[in-house]
Automatic annotation (TrEMBL), chain A:
UniProt xrefs under InterPro entries: THDP-binding, Transketo_C/PFOR_II, Transketolase-like_Pyr-bd, Transketolase_C
UniProt-listed CDD domains: TPP_PYR_E1-PDHc-beta_like (cd07036)
Matching Pfam families: Transket_pyr (PF02779), Transketolase_C (PF02780)
Record key words, sorted: Oxidoreductase, Thiamine pyrophosphate
Cofactor section: thiamine diphosphate
Protein name according to UniProt: Alpha-ketoacid dehydrogenase subunit beta
One of the record's GO molecular function terms: oxidoreductase activity
Gene3D superfamilies for the chain: 3.40.50.920, 3.40.50.970
Residue span, Transketolase-like pyrimidine-binding domain: 11-186
SMART domains: Transket_pyr
Automatic annotation (TrEMBL), chain B:
Single GO molecular function: pyruvate dehydrogenase (acetyl-transferring) activity
UniProt-recorded name of the protein: Thiamine pyrophosphate-dependent dehydrogenase E1 component subunit alpha
Keyword field: Oxidoreductase, Thiamine pyrophosphate
Catalysed reaction, written as an equation: N(6)-[(R)-lipoyl]-L-lysyl-[protein] + pyruvate + H(+) = N(6)-[(R)-S(8)-acetyldihydrolipoyl]-L-lysyl-[protein] + CO2
Cofactor: thiamine diphosphate
Species per Swiss-Prot/TrEMBL record: Azospirillum griseum
One Pfam assignment: E1_dh
Source superkingdom: Bacteria
Described purpose of this protein according to its UniProt entry: The pyruvate dehydrogenase complex catalyzes the overall conversion of pyruvate to acetyl-CoA and CO(2). It contains multiple copies of three enzymatic components: pyruvate dehydrogenase (E1), dihydrolipoamide acetyltransferase (E2) and lipoamide dehydrogenase (E3).
């Protein structure tokens, strides 16, 4: 390394989150972290590790199991000039906060004519596998995308996790920060110094000509593996990770689709009224009249998430099903193709090596 | 009780009380003209609570009100012209025409924004109080809400959190016995409200007299405690909503409550009672001054422009 400022090292997603928060708390006294378990010995899978020792119990503290009121507390503190980070160990628990998030956090700046700001980060983690089931697995981002006034981000790698967290903390608006449990152990080169990943700028993870694939949250990683499999059969994927869903960089996606004329959106949620529907419809509105366009969405099966692995594996898109779907779109006149499932399965353990 | 009050304080209280009463009566008078396109929840009859509480606060203390929040806004020093303009939907309104009567705010007067979703502002007020405590100030927050709001889960969640963290917040329950049209007897298993709250370790006071001075004295005593960091307190203050839930009229002909319930409150109305404590000339001067200011607020509202079309998209994000 020529200069310490340029120093990067492989860092896990979970450690990148903790580092971002720690650096922002050191920079800005108004930042504090609260939520059930943020100060216990497990420290939210390690994502708040070290913060209590460094910043003390006034800035890192647990809460009663009162998600509704605690969200209000965050909003009130934010209106008074602080920058709260409210942590939820599962995204499903945000349903207990909907009144405060939707009726107050999202609307306050507008409804009060710009008189107040609500700079707060709502951290939430999505679970998957090992029996997470109906109420520990939900990707509820589209519910928040629906409401003006909320920003929604879903970083898929450690580099974006740190940069998005720093941007979220510095943002003057409420930011719903969607994390994925299975991404926590994935590593990427992460700068030691503070930096921000700007919202509203998608990342092109792979450049390709045959089909545009958009992957949201950990589905970006699953799509990356699918693209590797597709390369073996000479299908090249233009793979895009939106990173932030609100604001959404539809320009980058639409420019890609203008070239490929084929769009597959893979979301870590249900497709109905979801982020995938939004992305597909925005692209269709832009490009629909300009020539043939092929659009497909993939996401959770339209069921509640089951716990048994026998059914759960059918609930989610995976690199094999994504590759199969993309191949069918890219080679509509060819024979159907599905990668060897054993080969594809390795993708779950394969570590992300971004950023791109 | 009144003997300890200097003429200056009595005059100040009357100035606020009379102003709010007349301001809302003016709103009610304008309402049929359809110039105010905003659902109004009048506090007429309940103003003494806001006046008593706010008079015991400092200007740098904050209040959090409700959609029935005209009184708290005005009593805390919220700008009446901006409020009237807000109800007219004008760009000069307190929320630049985006909030209306139910979302009044005045950051200069430390009036936090009001909400139309019952109970929603209670935890927000506690969050504000948390920030004041973390910022090592001795400022406090008074959070107004109604008896209906006390039925929301977030109320109890907030009591617990505020007591646990000894937050400088005074909870003020304006108990007018009705949630929209439903009487308390159909909503509460018991009326031992203060006892419920006290189990959180929160000091409570119940005021049933309708006496503005009792409200002010009680607030002053509890606010001292808050400033010393001794944790939150609550006042349950009985009152009666003279007008309909929403709108400018009386509604005793609707059959859900008899006028006889209101009459004792009308008979001990604080507006004439406190007026009578003042020398006639001073009373008349205060009233004349209020009428001028209210007229000025109406003129300001009427003459202010509506927001330009492009304003629709402003302030979605900060």
């Amino acid at each position: 390394m020529s200069s310490p400022n340029a120093a990067t090292r492989q860092l896990r997603y979970v450690d990148a989150l903790a580092e971002a928060v720690s650096q922002e708390m050191a920079r800005d006294d108004s930042v504090f972290v609260f939520g059930l378990d943020v100060d216990d010995h497990k420290s939210i899978q390690g994502s708040t590790r070290g913060l209590l020792d460094r910043f003390g119990p006034e800035r890192i503290f647990t809460t009663p199991l009162s998600e509704d009121a605690m969200t209000g507390v965050a909003i009130g503190a934010a209106m008074a000039g602080m920058r709260p980070i409210h942590v939820h160990i599962r995204m499903d628990f945000l349903l207990l906060c909907m009144n405060q998030i939707v009726n107050m956090a999202a609307k306050a700046h507008y409804m009060y004519g710009g008189a107040v700001k609500v700079p707060m980060v709502v951290r939430s983690m999505i679970g998957k596998s090992w029996g997470q089931g109906a109420q520990h697995s939900q990707g509820l981002h589209s519910m928040f995308m629906h409401v003006p006034g909320l920003k929604v981000v879903a970083p898929s790698n450690a580099y974006d996790a740190k940069g998005c967290m720093m941007a979220a903390i510095r943002d003057d608006n409420p930011v719903i920060f969607m994390e994925h449990r299975l991404l926590y152990s994935t590593e990427a080169p992460v700068p030691e110094d503070p930096y921000t990943v700007e919202f509203g700028r998608a990342r092109r993870m792979l450049e390709g000509d045959n089909i545009t694939v958009v992957g949201v949250s950990n589905m970006a990683v699953e799509c990356l593996r699918a693209a590797e499999l597709l390369r073996e059969v000479d299908v090249s994927v233009d793979l895009i990770d939106p990173i932030s869903l609100v604001p959404l960089d539809i320009d980058t996606i639409a420019q890609s689709v203008a070239r490929t004329r084929k769009l597959l959106v893979v979301d870590n949620s249900w497709t109905s009224c979801g982020a995938s529907a939004e992305i597909a419809s925005q692209v269709t509105e832009r490009l629909g009249g300009s020539g043939p366009l092929q659009v497909r969405r993939m996401g959770f099966a339209p069921t509640t998430c089951p716990t048994t692995p026998a059914l759960e594996q059918l609930f989610y898109p995976n690199p094999s099903t994504i590759a199969e779907a993309a191949y069918a779109m890219a080679r509509p006149n060819g024979a159907s193709w599905r990668p060897d499932p054993e080969h594809a399965k390795l993708a779950y353990q394969a570590q992300f090596k971004g950023p791109f | 009780m009144t003997s300890q009050y200097t003429p200056e304080i009595v005059a100040r209280l009357y100035r606020s009380l009379y102003f709010i009463r007349r301001f809302e009566e003016r709103v009610a008078a304008i309402y049929p003209s359809d110039k105010i396109k905003s659902p109004v929840h009048l506090s007429i009859g309940q103003e003494f609570i806001s006046v008593g509480v706010c008079d015991a606060l400092r200007s740098d203390d904050a209040v959090s009100g409700t959609y029935r929040g005209h009184a708290a806004y005005l009593a805390k020093g919220g700008d009446p012209a901006a409020m009237m303009a807000e109800m007219y939907g004008k760009v000069t309104g307190s929320a630049a025409g985006r909030g209306g009567s139910m979302h009044l705010i005045d950051t200069k007067a430390n009036v936090l924004g009001a909400s139309a979703v019952v109970g929603t502002t209670i935890p927000i007020a506690a969050g504000y109080a948390l920030a004041l405590k973390r910022q090592k100030t001795d400022r406090v927050v008074a959070a107004f809400f109604g008896d209906g709001a006390s039925e929301e889960g977030c109320f109890y969640e907030t009591l617990n959190f505020a007591a646990l963290h000894k937050l400088p917040i005074l909870f003020v329950c304006e108990n007018n016995f009705y949630a929209i049209h439903e009487p308390q007897s159909k909503r509460w298993a018991t009326d031992r409200f203060c006892e419920r709250v006290a189990t959180f370790g929160i000091e409570t006071r119940k005021i049933t007299s309708g006496d503005l001075f009792e409200v002010r004295d009680t607030t002053a005593e509890l606010v001292d405690k808050l400033r010393r960091g001794e944790g939150p307190a609550l006042i349950e203050c009985h009152a009666y909503r003279w007008r309909e839930h929403v709108g400018p009229n009386e509604d005793y002909d609707q059959g859900y409550r008899p006028r006889s319930e209101m009459e004792p409150w009308e008979a001990r109305d604080e507006v004439p009672r406190i007026a009578a404590l003042l020398p006639e000339a001073e009373r008349a001067a205060i009233e004349a001054e209020a009428e001028v200011a209210i007229e000025a607020a109406v003129v300001f509202a009427e003459q202010s422009p509506f927001p330009a079309p492009e304003e629709l998209y402003r302030h979605v994000f900060a």
